[in-house]
Every structure is written in C-alpha cells, then in structure tokens.
Design brief:
The complex is a heterodimer of chains A (about 400) and B (about 210). Chain A has about 400 residues and is mainly beta. Chain A has three helices and 30 strands. A five-stranded antiparallel sheet of chain B has the order 2-3-6-9-10, with no helix packed on it. In chain B, strands 1-4-5 form a three-stranded antiparallel sheet, with no helix packed on it. A two-stranded antiparallel sheet of chain B has the order 7-8. The chains are: A mainly beta (about 400), B alpha+beta (about 210).
C-alpha cells in the first residue's frame, strides 16, 4: 500500500517538474507535406506523421504524430493529393478526410453500408474505383466509380461472378488491371473449416469485364498457385510496367491464402493479351524456401518483394511481432532474386516501400527497436539509413505520398 | 532490473516492455519489499530542494495571506472528508478479490449471437457458439470459439505458458487455437495483422467495426 502512495507521489512531483518544459515548447504539428507515414504506437494507438524528407532527420510519434482513434481508423486507407479515404463502419459511409493537428477531419461522406473494400484503383486524379464485398456473405462483388472532387457516386453495380465453387463460398479480390476496354479482376474463393479457420481454393481465377460497363465477358483459371494478389488498400501486390505488361504476385502463405503448400509466385498478363501468360512465372518459394507478401515496381525491369521466414515464426499468433521479414530485388527478365542487406523487419503486410525516381524508401521496424526508413539507390544498389521514427513508434504500417 | 524513477515514469506512460511492466506491477503489489532500499535516496536535503524548486514556479505570487483559522469543528469535517477521499481512492486502486481465485465458466455455445458478460475485474463478449474458462488468479484463459476481453484493471494471463499483462481499458481478442501449444491473444490494433479472411469472421461474430 505504501508503494502505491509513493508511486503516485513521485508521479505528482514529476508532472510538476515537467510542466514548465512543456509550455514554452508548444509544438505545431505538420499536417501537410510530401510524405504521410501511418504508424502503430507502443500504447496500441494509431498516428500519422507528415515528413518532407525521408533521407535524414528523425520525427517522433509522440511529438509530431497526429493520433487517430483506433475505434474508427485502421491502416487500410487510401491517401491521394492531400486527402485520406476510409470507410467509417460506425456510420457506414465512405469518408473523405483532411489531416488536422488533432485527427482526420471528415470533409464529405458517401453511403457504403455493409461493405468492405477489397481493391481500389485511381483511374485519374479525380476518379476512384472501388471493388467491395458485402459484409454478410462475402460473395457479392460490387464496383463503385466515385468522383472524389464532388465526392459523388458516378455509378455502381454488381459484378456477376459465381458466388461459390463447391464448398468454397466466399470471395477475395486480389487485383484489378484496367485496360482500354477491359478490366481484368484477379480473385479466389475461401472455405471456412471452423469458427475462424479457413483455406483457399487451389486455383487463381481471373475475370475479364467489359469496361466501362463491367459486364462479365469471360473467366479463366490457372492452377499454379492460389490467392492472386491481396487487399491493395493495405499493401501493394501488382503493377504495370512501362511496356504495359501487368505483373502480380500470388500469396498462398498463412497471412493471406493459408494454402501454404502452393508456391508464392510472380505472374504476368502481357500488354497484348488478357489472360495470364502460361509460360511465364517466377516461383519465389522455390528460390527462397519461403512465402512472400507485397511487391513494388522499382523500374529497370525489377521489383522489390517482402518475404517471411518460416524458421522464425510459430503461426499467426506471432507472425506480426516476429522480426522475420526480408526484402529481395527480383529481376523480372532474368527471374533471379537478390536479397537486400537490411535488418529483419516485423509486421504482417505493410505498405513499407515507396518508390520515387531512382530511390526506393523502405520502412523497417527492427529487433533493436529502430524504426527507420532505408534509402535504396536503385541504379547503384547502395543502401543508406534515412529518416528515423522515434517516440513510441512500434510499426510503420504505411508510407505514402501525401 | 531495479525500480527507479525512470522506470516508474516509463510505466506510467505505458512505454515499458512486458517484462518491465510485470516487474513494476509485482513491486507495487508486494508489501514485503523495503521501500527505502528499493528507492535509495542518498541526499534527502538535495531531493527536498529539487522537489521544492519544481513546485515553486507553480505557486501564485505574491503568496496570499493565510486565511483566518476556522473553528475546530469545520477543520475536523475537512480532515474526515480528506481521509474518506484518500481511503476511497486507495480502495479503487486495490484489486477486488471476488473473482480473483475462482475459475469462472462461461457458456454461449448454443447461441447464434454474441453475449456480454460483466465481471468485477473484466467484461467479456463471448462470440456465438463459444465458451470460456477464466481464472485470473492463476492466469488461465481458455477459449473455445472466440471472445473479446476487456480488463477493468491490469491482469496477468498466461499466453502459451508465458505471463503477459493485459492492460486496463484495452480490448483484447482471444481466439481458440487448434494448436494446444499456442494461444491467440491480440489487441484490437493488432487485429489488422490477422489474415483478412479471419478479420472478416471476427468482425461479424463480435460486432467489431
């Protein structure tokens, strides 16, 4: 009992001692800038820090971070031209926000009842296209074309995909690839085998839709892997290169498909075709003996991928907190992998790579409790430490251009 | 590890590692340790001056004259009130022992909707078709199905045999494990790391946003 009294007594003195230092150093938090970093903090909070330079200095979650309510927000958000977009489930609306010194301030809303976003695509700076599934059966796929300036729904509709294949009766959408007159959707089916246990069908599905009508034209299958891509408001899994060829990574590991006997692999849909190239794939799992999640183009016919280490984690109870993630550069032509000399990272699925010109910024939360951007110079391959995140940072979950 | 001012400050700000947190909790709860030796103060006068120096800037200047002495009966009422307030504050800090040592069994296995259960030291939301055995005295938290666990004070639970601290005011998601060796306990913020197919089911079953 005496110690509780002593503890509160010490705290009281300490607060008094701290007060004069806090008042003069009133800090104005930056709300606009070049980069937006979304972080999970050690007190289980979320915050956003704005940075103008990822190559040097340090910023603190505690001092510079703008806290976001964990009741309303998580990292699955879209950041574009200074605005943030996220579904607020409490009001069942898609909300457009701007960042203020206190939080994200709602600017406009659009009804989005009982839906969650599986995939997003910016057709231009003013038009956002969302693909959603319903929150009850996870089997009804809809698209929504949104004018983000007026924040009005331009049009929406149901995409008529088969709702099940045998006992596999829920959907996941892994990618959308927009062509001039077509959209190719990558998707898969899951089956729940217990209250939360699930597995994924052992086939990659692609649907070809007419664009802009979104009418279903054809469905194709590829049995080389499972779960094509992933939820791209959380992490990137695909890109189109300068020749117009579309690359995506399949993710059958436990963090997405939970069909780990199939390999993680990179596939291509060539510019001149609308089906997966049957002769091209890079079998990542065969080369590194592990699964990967996350792929970012760095130009020069190369991409960075983020892979797990199965010798380090037990199951998904410690998958996120284990320092295990490695980054590799994949040469898409030579089909070779080169491991980057970086500390092991933690955090299951992160938008941790941002490419700007000839530099790739890679955010790593390492075992020494450093939360650091690393600057990878793409032409030379040199890696140097950049911006440090301090002050209670636990995970850097997103790095975006604001 | 030693108890010192820095560790207590860290503890208060919630910046301790789980080991440090447990260490401070144990120290606070243990009345057998000697306070003076745990927090050695070598120079009492210097510390007194330091505290006074930090308090002084917050005092109004010029110092107002002391009020006239009130009749003794009023001052006695104030003192009794002060004692009562202090006692109430300390009582609220003290762990309630009602369900500390008993194993509580909760059953929602026949239901298709989640069920809130309020206890002195925690609230739980038991998911559909779920049941749980909880003994916070021994750290047991066994779940068939899933539940939300909201501690009303800091509670030590054994996760896969290793003690972890579940913090007052935080919401934890506890999942049945098919593997007896491991237990799945996540904070609400950590839920974002679960596979999307698992998150969907949890959100539906536990009415999570």
């Amino acid at each position: 009992m005496r110690k509780y009294v002593l503890y509160y007594g010490l705290l009281a003195c300490w607060f008094l001692a701290c007060m004069p230092a806090q008042h003069p150093a009133h800090h104005t938090k930056q709300t606009t800038g070049t980069y937006s970093l979304y972080m999970l903090t050690k007190d289980d909070g979320n915050c956003v820090v704005i940075a103008n330079n990822l190559e040097q200095d340090s910023l603190s979650a505690e001092v510079d971070g703008i806290p976001l309510s964990t009741e309303t927000f998580d990292r699955s958000m879209m950041v574009k031209n200074g605005h943030y977009y996220h579904i607020d489930k409490a009001i069942d609306q898609l909300v457009k926000y701007r960042l203020t010194a206190d939080s994200l301030q709602a600017l406009a809303t659009l009804p989005m009842a009982d839906k969650h976003i599986e995939n997003s695509y910016w057709s231009d700076d003013h038009t956002l296209i969302l693909f959603t599934l319903d929150d009850k059966t996870y089997a009804t796929l809809e698209y929504h074309v949104i004018d983000v300036d007026a924040f009005k729904l331009i049009r929406s509709g149901i995409i008529d995909l088969p709702k099940s294949i045998g006992d596999y009766n829920t959907l996941s959408i892994g990618f959308s690839n927009f062509r001039q007159h077509e959209v190719i959707i990558g998707y898969c089916y899951h089956q729940y085998t217990g209250i939360t246990e699930y597995t994924t069908i052992d086939t990659l599905y692609t649907a070809i839709l007419a664009y802009p009508s979104m009418a279903l034209k054809a469905i194709h299958k590829d049995a080389r892997s499972a779960y094509p891509g992933g939820i791209n408001t959380v992490q990137s899994y695909n890109f189109t290169d300068e020749k117009g060829d579309f690359y995506f990574m399949s993710c059958p590991g436990i963090a997405l498909g939970n069909m780990p006997d199939l390999p993680t692999a990179i596939f291509k849909i060539p510019a001149a075709a609308d089906t997966i190239d049957p002769d091209y794939w890079i079998n990542i799992s065969e080369q590194i003996g592990n699964h990967a999640y996350g792929m970012w183009s760095i130009g020069y016919g190369k991409a960075i991928i983020r892979s797990e280490r199965k010798d380090k984690y037990t199951n998904f109870s410690d998958h996120h907190s284990t320092y295990q993630f490695e980054y590799y550069v994949v040469d898409l032509t030579k089909q070779s992998l080169t491991k980057l000399d970086l500390p092991l990272d933690k955090g299951t699925r992160k938008e941790s790579v941002l490419v700007q010109g000839d530099k790739a910024y890679i955010a790593i939360d390492d075992a020494a409790d450093n939360h650091q951007l690393w600057v990878y110079d793409i032409p030379s391959g040199a890696i140097n430490p950049g911006l440090k995140l301090t002050g209670g940072t636990d995970y850097i979950l997103r790095v975006d251009f604001q | 590890m030693n108890i010192d001012k820095e560790l207590l400050e860290k503890y208060h700000l919630g910046l301790c590692s789980p080991e440090e947190q447990l260490f401070v909790e144990k120290w606070l709860a243990d009345d057998t340790l000697d306070v003076d030796s745990a927090l050695p103060i070598t120079n009492r006068t210097a510390v007194q001056h330091e505290i006074w120096a930090s308090v002084l800037p917050h005092m109004d200047t010029p110092v107002a004259p002391l009020p006239e002495k009130r009749p003794k009966i009023v001052s006695l009422v104030w003192r009794l009130g002060g004692v009562a307030a202090l006692a109430a504050m300390l009582w609220s800090l003290w762990p309630r022992k009602a369900d500390l040592q008993r194993e509580m069994v909760f059953d929602n296995s026949k239901s298709v909707s989640p069920l809130w259960i309020r206890q002195a030291n925690y609230d739980i939301l038991l998911g559909e078709a779920s049941s749980a055995k909880i003994n916070i005295g021994t750290g047991k938290l066994e779940v068939a199905g899933n539940l939300l666990f909201k501690p009303k004070r800091n509670i030590e639970i054994l996760k896969s045999g290793v003690p972890i601290l579940l913090k007052q005011g935080e919401t934890y998601i506890v999942l049945e494990s098919t593997d007896a060796e491991t237990q799945f306990i996540f904070t609400k913020s950590e839920m974002t790391f679960l596979p999307p197919a698992v998150q969907r089911r949890l959100k539906q079953q536990l009415n999570l946003s």
